[in-house]
Design brief:
332 residues; alpha/beta; 4-stranded mixed β-sheet
Length: 332
């Protein structure tokens, strides 16, 4: 399939992105923001691929969608194993509506993350809602963890949940937590001693699909407050315990065989908290040495094309297309 187009798709809570590859040349890339908490990453991916196809038509000098749809293509969606069926349904829908000749595959998101850094051998330690470890060695890839909520362990959701339990215990005893009082206003909650109950009741009454989003918002507010100089001994203890647990999961995943491979630290929680990243680094048995400049969608396209046997990729001179209000250059 030397003339085939390989299109990589990736999405998270912030945005989705797509990259088009032919041979070893990157033809186009695009990002689409995902700003509505009720909108899934897959919906944002639909916007991303539509914009990508339009840019592809311009790059190749052919019409969109009719002429472009006649091209042989493979769409690769970077997804965790828990979301793979949803991802595949989304991509199949995209390809069947305007690109019936395309083929659809699902690639592991951690594998695509490593491929997107030009690293053929390495470890991706991702800490977001949950913790997952991906090990890539030559053509071998293994994933450890990332089981999702409530079975996952050591991620941002666990940190937030443990802190809420602590504040609830204090509230039952008629006591308050100074850190909670500081972040309550950021959560649109009154700052009284009972505000934790208001927040919990609102969380329970909301759609179950939004509970993780609310916990992320809480954790983001706590991280911003603590890193702004307002320390809390209990939260610091939770931070360190979870970071230590992440280190143990990494050790268990890599074993003796892969402990010397370079490590990439990734995941929304690690990216958002400098203190937690430092705590995790202190509990790793090796140096996290891989640059975090990652394009997961590009990695997905590369894996679909047979990388690394296809050799290094060549970037086109065309300016990347960015949808919505995202202003940064995705290729920077």
């Amino acid at each position: 399939m030397h003339d085939a187009l390989y299109i990589g798709l990736a999405g998270d809570e912030r945005c989705s992105s797509a990259v088009a590859l032919r041979g070893n040349q990157i033809l186009a890339r695009v990002r689409a923001p995902n700003r509505n908490v009720n909108t899934s990453a897959w919906d944002a991916a639909a916007l991303a691929i539509d914009g990508l196809l339009r840019q592809l038509g311009n790059s190749l000098g052919i019409g969109y969608p009719t002429e472009l749809a006649a091209q042989t293509a493979m769409l690769a969606f970077a997804s965790s194993r828990l979301r793979s069926s949803v991802a595949k349904s989304c991509v199949i829908s995209l390809s069947s509506t305007g690109w019936p000749s395309s083929k659809v595959i699902i690639v592991d998101d951690l594998n695509a993350t490593l491929a997107g850094t030009d690293v053929n051998e390495g470890v991706c330690l991702s800490v977001g809602d949950d913790v997952a470890v991906g090990v890539r060695h030559a053509h071998f890839f293994r994933r450890f963890g990332g089981w999702g909520i409530p079975f996952g362990q050591g991620g941002g959701i666990q940190v937030a949940t443990r802190f809420v339990r602590h504040v609830l215990t204090l509230a039952d005893r008629g006591e308050s937590n100074p850190l909670w009082d500081l972040v309550a206003s950021q959560l649109n909650t009154a700052g009284s001693d009972s505000s934790i109950w208001d927040w919990v009741y609102r969380l329970d009454a909301s759609a179950r699909g939004n509970s993780q989003f609310e916990l992320r918002c809480l954790l983001s507010a706590i991280v911003a407050t603590t890193e702004g100089g307002h320390s809390d001994p209990i939260f610091t203890e939770i931070f360190d315990e979870v970071a230590r647990h992440v280190g143990r999961l990494y050790t268990l995943a890599v074993g003796d065989e892969f402990r010397n491979l370079p490590v990439l630290l990734d995941g929304w929680f690690l990216r958002s908290s400098r203190l937690f990243e430092e705590a995790v680094r202190s509990h790793l048995s090796c140096e996290a040495s891989i640059s975090r400049e990652v394009d997961v969608a590009e990695g997905a396209a590369l894996l679909a094309s047979g990388w690394p046997s296809t050799g290094p990729r060549i970037h086109s001179e065309s300016k990347p297309l960015v949808l919505g209000l995202v202003t940064e250059d995705p290729s920077a």
